Amino acid sequence: MPDLTELATGLQFPEGPVVMPDGSIVVTEIKSGTLARVQPDGSGTVERFADLGGGPNGAALGPDGYLYIANNGGFLWSEVNGFRIPIDHPTHTNEPPGFAGGWIERIDLAAGAEIAFERGRRRGTVRATLLVDASGPAGALARSLGVGAGTFPGYPETEALYTHFEGVRRWDSLHASETPPYPVDAAAVHHVFDGGWIWVLRFNNGVTSAGVAADSAIADELRFADGAPAWERLIARLPSVRDQFAEARATLPFVHTPRLAFRASTAAGPNWALLPSAAGFVDPLLSTGFPLTLLGVERMANALETGWDSPKLPALLRDYSTVTLRELDTTAELIGALYLHMADFEIFAALTLLYFAAASFSETARRLGKPTLARGFLLQEREEFATGWKRLLAAARGPLTGEARGQLLREVAAAIEPINVAGLGDAKRRNWYPALAEDLAAAAAPKLGADRAAIDGLLARCGFTASPRTP
Ligand SMILES: Cc1cc2nc3c(=O)[nH]c(=O)nc-3n(C[C@H](O)[C@H](O)[C@H](O)COP(=O)(O)OP(=O)(O)OC[C@H]3O[C@@H](n4cnc5c(N)ncnc54)[C@H](O)[C@@H]3O)c2cc1C
């Protein structure tokens, strides 16, 4: 028997392997209409770099360096006894609708990525040295290149239902007995319940965006797919939300997102990249979407500034992918733990402090002109904080009874202490956090390496005039 080594799996009906001058192997994939590059080193790496459409079949490298493809125009497919065959089993034809024959195409491998597109009846291809997908959850490029799905380990399946309303009552008109240190209705009001949460975002034109994100058990039970009736069933269970929406009227149809969280298996290849929101999404609970996107755009800009027109670019894009997915995973670790404790407000509120402490420290460091104090998302480059983060979120997944519960609360307080610049966790504040100049002043020298003048300068630049009411 010859000695066989499997170089790649999961290919989409591969054909026409061509060994390239650099030793890599380019294969066509008839089922997905794509070209993929396989590495001969046994790493199993498959990089899809072109979406040609049709059914790319035989391939050969021309003397001019171009790759020539015999595209058969595409097949119909059936699954028979677990086997995928290129024929429509019931009709015994393999010609797709509108089949007009095959074609020969020439690919300039040096020119980067190529994808086919369809708009109405128009078909065409786009070719670029680097394709960046900014299509958000639509994941146009990821789908086109057949980028596989990854998972957030231990994260629940979640769904969302949302729309715009008029006539939503102000929270402060319903809960006048509380005296929060800021106008609650000018912020995002969150209502948390076992298995999910509701957001209420009041715009300044009388319209309120509101919706629910919940695990699939709740979404199934309330039948989110029904839209408005599901919303009514939900708020009927939650008296304070029902009061807030007693006179509300939806102004747009409800949107149901049956799969809220998603993650791609990779966020970049040698000549393509997904912006963070196309590479994955976790949940709006902590408003992590925009920071993740903006940090990704900054990272991409840095990669292009350093690596454009240079052989370093593929490695820089690999790093971009690693960091982008790591930041999404970090977010999912925390929000996954929060979903577990939505019925236990004390633990829920304590775990959110990991986020609020890291976010407010990062924001302050940047505003002080000291971005190196907070390089990674949610301070994950600070070894001590990152280790504590992992340990505490793992502990939060275990049973939290008796001593374990008290220990978790104490350890969260200890983990955030070195970066706490906002008085977080101070029991006297009862989870209401005003923006107080003295919190920053107290944290200035020991935590931010800044003096009082630097803090005063920051406050002045932010238009901060006086401390608001304390609770
Ligand atoms: C319900 C909900 C609430 C959220 N709340 C918050 C929050 O409070 N705070 C926060 O920080 N983040 C929040 N997010 C996340 C935030 O919306 C995203 O992180 C952010 O919009 C990402 O920006 P983006 O430009 O990368 O993608 P998007 O805003 O998704 O924009 C992608 C655009 O591409 C277009 N597009 C898609 N496919 C194609 C195609 N084939 N061709 C051409 N165009 C295409 C789309 O129409 C869209 O306009 C929320 C998300 C959801 C779903």
Q: What is the general shape? A: globular
User: How far apart, in Å, are the first and last alpha carbons?
Assistant: 80 Å
Strand content: 15-25%
Beta strand count: 22
Bound molecules: flavin-adenine dinucleotide
Largest sheet: 6 strands, mixed
What is the helix fraction of residues, given as a range?
A: 25-40%
Tell me what you see in this structure:
The protein has 13 helices and 22 strands. The model is unreliable at 467-471 (pLDDT under 50). The termini are far apart. The chain has helices at residues 140-144, 171-174, 216-222, 228-236, 239-244, 276-279, 289-307, 313-340, 345-367, 383-395, 402-416, 437-448, 452-461, and strands at residues 14-19, 25-29, 34-38, 46-51, 56-61, 67-71, 78-80, 83-85, 103-107, 113-119, 122-128, 131-133, 158-166, 188-193, 196-202, 207-215, 249-250, 255-257, 262-263, 268-269, 272-274, 280-281. It folds into four domains: 14-127, no CATH class; 129-154 and 261-340, 3-Layer(bba) Sandwich (FAD/NAD(P)-binding domain); 158-257, D-Amino Acid Oxidase, Chain A, domain 2 (2-Layer Sandwich); 343-471, no CATH class. Helix 8 (313-340) runs antiparallel to helix 9 (345-367) and helix 10 packs antiparallel against helix 11. It has 471 residues and is α+β, with helices and mostly antiparallel strands. It is globular, with a radius of gyration of 27 Å. It is 33% helix and 23% strand. 34% of the residues are buried. Bound molecules: flavin-adenine dinucleotide. The site of flavin-adenine dinucleotide has 16 residues, from strand 13 and helix 7.
